[in-house]
């Protein structure tokens, strides 16, 4: 028989109350944690933030030098590639690399057997043409004498003898003889020109130095065949002198505006890392060049290499002095990049809701409406902007032309809060 409704209700109520008593500790713990978190947030909002600490540096008088860095390669002031206009076999080579040579000195010799035969043939052609010219001249002289004789007979005979046809034939023969003389003379000139060309080629078989200098490279050996059908092959490379050289450097398009002819420069090479060489800008090319998407301009620097320590092809890093300012007011360049962080006004005031809402950042001062540069100084512990006019800068120090006195301390950065 089932339980009565009263007994069943009592049993259900007792079970529900037991469960509530068992959950009570967890509820209390959650409430306590929420209260602690709210208190911590409220305390943090009420606690005033520490004032920032600024690092400063004094504006000081000094000298500043502005330089432009560029990299390039050394090469001789005058460099000549010596080649051959003729094809043939190299018979001998008279010099090697590093040899000192004089203008006109024989460097190498081609086989001249074929060229000598051609010159002898042309010489014979000249002799034959000269003989034909003398023969034509003799024929013309004979025709002229015949015509003179016939004309004399015509005068003595009062025109009765010889016949007019005979006189006309004599005159035509003389004209033909004179034309033959002119043709033979032209053939002689042509034969002489061919002989001169063959003699020139024979002379060019001796490859000579065009300048006084030093042999930088020798690219030929005895027995090697030279083929000059399309272009003259390079056999030797000669530098006029190595005591005076030039350095071609690539100046970036952002720096080329400050580089001018006559500016002083220094450079170093990897072969002598502890040594600094002096140079002077001779020319800055107007035409640009593009390498890997970078636009640059070639500047040519004159280099004194009296001790011959520098060699063609060496890579050099040059520093071109574009400006030098003496006794200028200088500040660290970081002072021109400094901007103070936003600070809260009326710290500790406002409701909790106002403090939780985001605010737009504020700066202690705005940039000058005139577009002047600014540095920041401390007044009464707060940063204040000062408009200045800047001059030269080497990246580390910047010249202040006006707006700031020497000795004034400027803010360079914000240090960590204490």
Task: Walk me through what this model shows.
With 418 residues, the chain is an alpha+beta fold. It has 5 domains: 1-47; 53-62 and 329-415, Beta Barrel (conserved putative lor/sdh protein from methanococcus maripaludis s2 fold); 67-77 and 241-324, Beta Barrel (Elongation Factor Tu (Ef-tu), domain 3); 80-107 and 211-240, Beta Barrel (OB fold (Dihydrolipoamide Acetyltransferase, E2P)); 112-204. Helix content is 33%, strand content 37%. It is built from 5 helices and 19 strands. Strands 2-11-14-13-12-15 form a 6-stranded antiparallel beta barrel. A 4-stranded antiparallel sheet has the order 3-10-8-5, with no helix packed on it. The chain is elongated. The model is unreliable at 343-371 (pLDDT under 50).
CATH-scheme architecture of the largest domain: Beta Barrel
Question: Could you tell me the strand content as a percent range?
Answer: 35-45%
Strand pairing plus helix content: what structural class? alpha+beta
Number of folding domains? 5
What gap, in angstroms, lies between the N and C termini?
82 Å
Q: Given this structure, which CATH class of the largest domain is correct?
A: Mainly Beta
Number of E-type strands: 19
The largest sheet is:
6 strands, antiparallel, barrel
Compute the number of helices: 5
């Amino acid at each position: 028989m089932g339980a009565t409704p009263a007994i069943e209700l009592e049993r259900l109520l007792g079970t529900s109350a037991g469960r509530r008593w068992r959950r009570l500790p967890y509820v209390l713990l959650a409430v306590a944690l929420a209260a602690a978190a709210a208190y911590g947030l409220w305390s943090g909002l009420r606690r005033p933030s520490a004032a920032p600490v600024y690092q400063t540096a004094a504006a000081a008088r000094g000298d500043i030098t502005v330089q432009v860095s560029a990299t390039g390669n050394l090469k001789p002031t005058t460099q000549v590639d010596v080649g051959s206009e003729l094809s043939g076999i190299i018979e001998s080579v008279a010099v090697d690399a590093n040899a000192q040579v004089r203008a006109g000195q024989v460097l190498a010799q081609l086989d001249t057997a074929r060229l000598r035969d051609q010159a002898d043939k042309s010489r014979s052609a000249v002799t034959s043409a000269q003989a034909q010219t003398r023969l034509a001249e003799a024929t013309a002289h004979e025709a002229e004498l015949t015509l003179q004789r016939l004309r004399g007979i015509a005068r003595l005979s009062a025109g009765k003898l010889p016949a007019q046809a005979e006189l006309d034939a004599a005159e035509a023969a003389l004209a033909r003889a004179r034309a033959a003389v002119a043709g033979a003379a032209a053939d002689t000139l042509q034969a002489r020109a061919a002989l001169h060309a063959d003699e020139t080629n024979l002379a060019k078989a001796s490859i000579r130095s065009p300048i006084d200098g030093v042999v930088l490279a020798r690219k030929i050996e005895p027995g090697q065949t030279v083929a000059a059908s399309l272009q003259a092959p390079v056999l030797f490379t000669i530098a006029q002198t190595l005591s005076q050289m030039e350095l071609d450097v690539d100046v970036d398009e952002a720096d080329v505006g400050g580089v001018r002819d006559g500016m002083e420069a220094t450079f170093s090479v990897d072969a002598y890392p502890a040594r600094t060489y002096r140079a002077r800008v001779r020319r800055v090319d107007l035409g640009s060049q593009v390498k890997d998407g970078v636009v640059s301009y070639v500047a040519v620097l004159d280099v004194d290499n009296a001790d011959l320590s520098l060699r063609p092809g060496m890579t050099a890093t040059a520093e071109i002095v574009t400006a030098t300012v003496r006794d200028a007011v200088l500040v660290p360049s970081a002072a021109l990049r400094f901007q103070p962080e936003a600070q809260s006004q009326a710290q500790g005031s406002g409701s909790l809701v106002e403090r939780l809402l985001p605010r737009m950042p504020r700066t202690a001062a705005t940039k000058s409406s005139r577009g002047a540069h600014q540095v920041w100084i401390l007044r009464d512990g707060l940063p204040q902007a000062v408009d200045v006019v800047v001059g030269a800068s080497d990246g580390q120090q910047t010249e202040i032309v006006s707006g700031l006195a020497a000795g004034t301390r400027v803010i360079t950065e914000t240090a960590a809060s204490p």
